[in-house]
Structure formats: C-alpha cells, structure tokens
Amino acid sequence: MDAYTLIVASSIASAIMAMTMYLLHRASPRDTALLDWALVGVFNLVSNGIGMAILSHRTASPLAPAIANVFYIAGHYGIQAGLRRHFGLAPRWNVALLLSLLILGVHFTPFAQASTANRLILFYPIIIAIDLLTIKLLWRAPEHEAKPAYRSLLLLEIAFVLQIVSSFVFILSGDGGTLTAAGGQFLKTAGSLSTFVFLSVATMSCALVVMRHQEVALRKASLSDSLTGWLNRRALQDIAEREFQRGRRAHSPMSFMIFDIDHFKSVNDRFGHAVGDAAIRHVTAQAAQALRGYDGLFRIGGEEFAAIIADAPFEQLQQIGERLRALIESAPMMVNGQPLTITVSVGMATCEASDLRWEDILRRADDALYCAKRGGRNQVRRYHSDLAPVLAERSRFASAA
Question: Across the chain, which distance is largest between two alpha carbons, in Å?
C-alpha cells in the first residue's frame, strides 16, 4: 500500500474517531473527555489533509508541514488531555496551545528549514515525551474496577512510542535516505501506517474506557444508597457472605454492628422529612469517622445501619462501638440555627463456631440493638447470654402480634 493511500485511510480513521467520540458524548454529556478525544480525530484529520496536499502538489512552503505537525502533535496531546479530564484532573489545553506556537515558530528557524530530517529530529522527542506522559498517567491510574479497560490504550501508547523511537534512531543513523517534506519512502509508509493503526485502536480503546467506567458506575449505583452513599441491602448479601467465608477459612473474627437513630420519628414529626434526611446524612458522616476505613458500611433500613467489622477482638470491637456512639452524641446537628443532639443505640455480635450463616450473626446483633433500646437508648450492647430475659420478652411481643 503506497503512502498516499495510507494517508487517505488515516484520514478516514480520523473522521471515524471524531464522529464516534462526538456521538458518544451526545449520548453521555457528562463524559466530557469524549470531546477531547473527538478533537484528536479532528486534529489528525486536518494533519492528514495537509499531508495529502503536500504529496499532491509537492509544495516547498514551510507553512504547510508546520501546520500539519502542529495538528499532529496536538492530536497526541489530546489523548492525554482526555485522560486527565477522565481522571478528574485539569486537561491543560493551554499547554498544548503554547506548545503549538513553539512548534510553529521553530519551523521557520534555519535548522528546521534546512531539511525534513532536521524537523523530525526536533519534533520526534516532543511526541515521545507527550506519549510517555500519557503512559505514566495510564500506569498510575487509580485502583478501580474500570482499570482493566485502560490496558489496550496503554499497550497502544507503548507500541507507538517504540515505533517513534525506532524511526528517530533510523534518522539519526543516517539511513533515512533522501527525505522530502513528506518524508522518505520508509518513513512515509511507517508513519502513515502507524498513524492509521493508532487512530483505529485509539477509537476503540477510548470508547472502551468510557463504557467500562459507565458500567462500573451503574453497578455501584445499584449497590449504593442514594441518600448516604453507603452500601445497601443488596450489596450486604454479597459482601457479608464473602467476609463470612473468609473469616471461617482464616479463623478470624467477623462481627456485625447495627445502630439506629434514637427517636427518629420525632425528628421527622417536628422538623419534616427534609431535616430527617439531613439527620441521616449527618449520622452516617460521623459514623464513618468512627469506623475503620475498610469496614463495610450499609444502610439497611430507614434509620438503621450496619457495619461489618472484620478481624477485631472483643476489646477493639467495644471501643469502636463506644467511639461511634460518643462521636455522634458530641456532634449536634444545626437545625434553624439551633443545635439538635442526636443519639444512636448500638448492637454488636461476633461470629461463633456454631454459626452456619452470616445471617445468624446479624440476627444476634439486632437482638443486642433491641436490648440497647429497651435499656434506655444511647448505649452500646454486645450480644451475650445475659440478654436472654429481655429477648424472651421480645419474643412474647412478637408472638402476640
């Protein structure tokens, strides 16, 4: 395949990338990184269009290759800008603008105008540096369920850098042959082919990143409580089963802590449901500070919450429960400019050798919570045999109902 045909193919790949990314953005406006990647397609389309004009008319003006190189390098920067935006960082397009002005100016220096080889010697390191920064960004991507989706783009960037480095070494070795504004035969073919492959795979890789991220976000939303951000009962089923089985294999203690807001109905009755929702968010925010960062946190009812406490002996479990209760009590919530003290009752239970299911532990923690409420609220109770009389009373009430 000749160089001109490869440039035409690269132009088509550029147009496909621009349209694909733009249409994906129309379908998902929140993913603004798609607009950056759409610009990558536009920039490469412009660069390839100028390349076709150079091949067709054999122009000697330095302006045409200067503009083509500016858009080509901007296209590489656009991949990085989109990734930065995807990771919640500033895209820094102002850096690309300054870099473009610098590249444009350098084209009119005597060294750059002396030969095409000189221009490639100047600008290949810039492309390599941009792509290496992109590789670094992908390599250091935060741990996330969507991280495997970055691998294809990472491998693409690595392969492209290796190709550019090979071409750079080829030029420095003096084996590049006679170079024109469009390059030598080897460089024309290798460059156009690598650009075509890069754009084709980049389109699929960027789309994969966005779709995988959306899939993870939807799954997380289905497992999370929208009011507090804590996990819901559906998530509890999977996580509790996994922790229960892990604890049995490792012979490590697994405990449940259940707590709910004391007299929550009166808060709703006095101040309305908006304040009630704010009270729930306030309690969960305080509780998250008291609990360990790796404890599973769940909202399992209106004002009822649960936490899975793994690998905590009795003394530590009691300390965590007391810390949670005290922290919530000591952090009043402001309502209409007045402090409103909120308290919680806490029930806890730890896995026993006779437990066959994690639900057995949760049930005992709920029994301990009932005892905490019957005992006056705003207290921590751990399940043990001394609670039997109170629980017998609970059973009689349940039977009568």
Answer: 99
Q: Which residues contact 119 (CB under 8 A, 6 or more apart)?
A: 65, 69, 107, 112
In DSSP terms, which residues pair with 308 in a beta bridge? 256, 296
The CATH number of 3-223 is which of 1.20.1070, 1.10.287, 3.60.21, 2.60.40?
1.20.1070
Average confidence score pLDDT of the chain: 86
With 0-12 CB in 10 A as exposed, 13-18 as middle and 19+ as buried, what is 268?
middle
CA distance 282 to 278: 6
Which CATH topology does 233-400 take?
Alpha-Beta Plaits (3.30.70)
Q: pLDDT by residue (tens digit) across 87-114?
A: 889 999 999 999 999 988 888 888 888 8
* pTM, 2 dp: 0.65
> What's the rounded Cα separation, in Å, for the pair 268 and 115?
79
Tokens 């697994």 correspond to what residue? Answer: 254
| pLDDT tens for each residue of 32-42 | 999 999 999 99
Residue ranges, CATH 1.20.1070, the chain = 3-223
